[in-house]
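Aim 2 progress update. The chain analyzed this quarter is reproduced below.
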Amino acid sequence: MSIPLSAGQTRRGFAIGAVSLVVAPAPLWAASGVEKLIWHATPRPVTDEPFQDGAGESLSLSRFRGQVVIVNLWATWCAPCVREMPTLDTLQADLGAQGVKVVAMSQDREGAELAGPFKKSNGWSNLDLYVEPLTKFARAAEVKGLPTTLIVDKAGFEVARLQGTAEWDSPEMKKVIGDLLAKTP
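Predicted structure tokens:
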């Protein structure tokens, strides 16, 4: 089949364009996401910038010291965020009793008014509601986009970060988190 070329376009240029149209990115859930974790050479202090729980009480990550904390920054308008939330909900259900706390922090400007009903309508019953509508926490933590997840050890230090999505309830991810649980602060 011969495809007409526009003025100045060469067959080589078209072939490159055709290849880029045919080659698709890997599926969203092709892997657990463990390979996307960026481990810090030395643990980093986490921001103590406050955020709110669903009742409007101000708190910070220091409240969760002694637990492995999975801090996920998400928003209702972020399709990849919404897609990974059920895996965070399952992770909290599966490892919460062992000392893991998932802090899924909505970045929606409307705060709990929007995020609370959204969470409930999606059936994420194992996650507590946390919001930070002013995004001060995200700025202080140098978050570049959503979703972003910070992995905080029991001593309260960020040991890893993942930008983008992951399958948080996968066996591979649970093993990584379990290994952190086994370490003493």
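Strands lie at 38-45, 51-53, 58-59, 68-74, 100-106, 130-131, 148-152, 157-163. The CA atoms of residues 27 and 165 lie 11 Å apart. These observations will guide the mutagenesis experiments scheduled for the next reporting period.
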